[in-house]
Design brief:
Blueprint (H helix, E strand, L loop, with lengths): L8 E5 L4 H12 L3 E6 L2 H10 L7 E5 L25 E4 L11 H18 L5 E5 L13 E3 L6 H10 L5 H22 L7 E7 L1 E3 L14 H11 L4 H7 L7 E4 H13 L7 E4 L2 E2 L2 H9 L26 E3 L2 H7 L6 H15 L2
Parallel strand pairs: 1-2, 1-4, 2-3, 4-5, 5-7, 6-12, 7-10, 8-9
Antiparallel strand pairs: 9-11
């Protein structure tokens, strides 16, 4: 029997985000009710309009500061009210790659929602926390396969040694590791008090069409902006051709597969207590460029497509390969292809007039 099933209510934190909007959509399409958190009423207006057909199945609540934590019940926690009456939680809200402190906000936001669920989430049966492939893999000098047993302690060590002088990438990766480790430690510490279990999903580079509020390509999130810049922007063509990406560095996943994976992780009993990599496979920018140039009919964009070095993408090794076997075995995931994500992403660009 599923851990939850429709018409259960799921709390989705950071509901207006790139990934979170697809999580909300997948849940609503499968008959669930959703309570989404946003940082302001204004940020919720677009979501409400986008999902207007679902009426009362979607509820939005404002959580202005996710780092507001009720440690030792001394203060009110950011999610104390939001967790009441929901059957499960999909925690997707977390600091993105930026400048400044990323570790403390990520840790507080994660522990904060778990603390609120412990104190006020009497009906919660499962929490699915979106961590990152950055918490799994680390920099290597030869092709390496990573599994759920691996941790990016390299980034943590760099952050601990360099502190605020560490690079933004090191801080970002360290924030993902420390926040996830904090979540597992919290569950272990309170295992006899909680009524729910925890599942962590670790997606890799996320590409695919956007359904959240986006004004223009510059307002896309980090990975989606990278995709646009390298696959749709001809100004990047020479750069791709020059670099030829001597090695494919990482793996990728379609944002819609994250939505499906989150729902499956909420439903499937065997996912409880598991750390699960969500990844479709290796990629290079040239793979996506070639797929874009193979579209028939070709997309009608404002600029011609980059060409790069056609055909060289498949010649490269993947330096950091994240093994997705567990996601297929436990969640039954079947991932979208490079051709599919490219086709649908460019259809999105075309519809937006980019």
């Amino acid at each position: 029997m599923p851990v939850i099933q429709p018409p259960s209510k799921v709390l989705v934190s950071g509901a207006n985000g790139y990934m979170a909007m697809w999580v909300v959509r997948d849940l609503l399409e499968h008959g669930y009710s959703v309570r989404g958190t946003v940082r302001s009423a204004q940020k919720g207006e677009y979501i409400r309009k986008y999902f207007a057909d679902y009426g009362v199945k979607l509820e939005l609540v404002v959580v202005e500061d996710i780092t507001k934590v009720n440690f030792a019940a001394l203060t009110e926690g950011a999610f104390d009210e939001a967790v009441k009456g929901v059957d499960a939680i999909a925690h997707t809200a977390s600091p993105v790659l930026t400048t400044g402190d990323m570790v403390e906000p990520a840790l507080k936001g994660t522990i904060g929602i778990l603390q609120s669920a412990l104190r006020f989430g009497q009906s919660v049966k499962r929490i699915v926390y979106t961590s990152s492939g950055a918490a799994v893999m680390h920099e290597v000098d030869q092709p390496t396969t990573f599994t759920e047993e691996d941790w990016n302690l390299q980034a943590v060590n760099a952050f601990e040694e360099q502190g605020e002088s560490a690079s933004d990438f090191a801080k970002y990766r360290a924030s993902k590791v420390l926040a996830e480790q904090g979540a597992w430690s919290f569950v272990k510490e309170h295992q006899h008090e909680i009524s729910w279990d925890l599942t962590v999903v670790n997606p890799t580079f996320v590409f695919g069409p956007a359904i959240h509020e986006v004004a223009d390509p510059t307002s896309l999130n980090f990975s989606a902006r990278l995709f646009y810049d390298h696959v749709a922007d001809p100004a990047k063509s020479d750069e791709v051709a020059r670099q030829s990406l001597s090695n494919t560095l990482y793996t990728w996943v379609d944002v819609r597969d994250i939505g499906e994976g989150q729902r499956r992780a909420l439903e499937i009993p065997e996912a409880g207590g598991e750390r699960i990599i969500i990844s479709a496979g290796p990629w290079s920018w040239q793979d996506f460029i070639d797929a874009a140039n193979s579209l028939d009919p070709p997309p009608q964009l404002s600029e011609p497509l980059p060409k790069g070095n056609p055909g060289v993408g498949s010649q490269h090794s993947c330096m950091c390969y994240l093994d997705n076997t567990k996601s297929q075995r436990i969640l039954g995931m079947k991932y979208r292809s490079i051709a599919e994500v490219t086709r649908d992403t460019f259809a999105d660009y075309e519809a937006r007039g980019w």
